[in-house]
């Protein structure tokens, strides 16, 4: 009797074990409905456009997909859905405007997944005439999957959002801390015995001081040649953050702490020397901050054995501790109006423009001269590139 009871208990445990194995097998089976969805890692697709640029367009391919092989042919249609911009704004905390529908073109909108497959043909969504948009606004065009046949649609992955923002005039700059550029002029005649010169630069300086004991002197070099023509910031007994012009007629202007530049802010600096009029003028953000008429003579940027530099003067310890962009050398005196109206961009074919270094390459050590004069420059050390958006909103 005891043996019979033991056998019954053993059979019971065996039944439990078999049931357990069956349950595990069942867990490995697919017990969910196959669904259709838009095959995308991120539902938000960002684009930039440049207002006024000729024929600005963009495009993106979209695909439909299923988790499992389709049991039958599956189709879906991609359509523009501007009414869902409010959904985008709610999800992502934006204040975007609907992209005008005539700027969204889907010529062949139907995507098909064949039976036994898991991914559709591509459907190209194109965006045209973006240059007519307002660069101060953000636009969104949602694209939704509709008219699905052969399968159910996963609601959480049926809409893609295409976001359009105005491109900045300047998107990348060079950090030239502990670095400099020798300038070896390809067009020597343009910089020999000039009767006038204007130097412009857009800079953002972190520190005008000696910088962790590495930068040995509180001087920051923008451009020029020691002893001949030099645009720098700071000097011995002079505010370390004030722009100074050094030429054979003496240093200009006198020290004035009220004219000091801020740290960690973008500032446009322009320095003029006109040897025919004697004018020496310094502008900050388009405003004249100093002027005299005591600079007769002519300027040459060929230099001696040390040459001409961006970011270096006399020695390697007078670098510019920060970012630089839009360095321009002119062989004419630029007017205040001309300077103030073109902080972020000028026409490379402008009369009198000798060299134009935008510092927007974003990689490598070579910075291109955007004029036809061929004065490309190469950094002494590897460059650090910094992403920016200039002009900043509201400027």
Automatic annotation (TrEMBL):
Protein name: DUF1735 and LamG domain-containing protein
Regions annotated as coiled coil: none
PROSITE patterns the record matches: PROKAR_LIPOPROTEIN
Biological source species: Bacteroides gallinaceum
InterPro entries registered for this protein in UniProt: BT_3987-like_N, ConA-like_dom_sf, LamG-like
Gene3D superfamilies named in the record: 2.60.120.200, hypothetical protein (bacova_03559)
Top-level lineage group: Bacteria
Keywords: Disulfide bond, Signal
The keyword Disulfide bond appears for this protein: yes
SUPFAM superfamilies on file: Concanavalin A-like lectins/glucanases (SSF49899)
Domain LamG-like jellyroll fold: 195-337
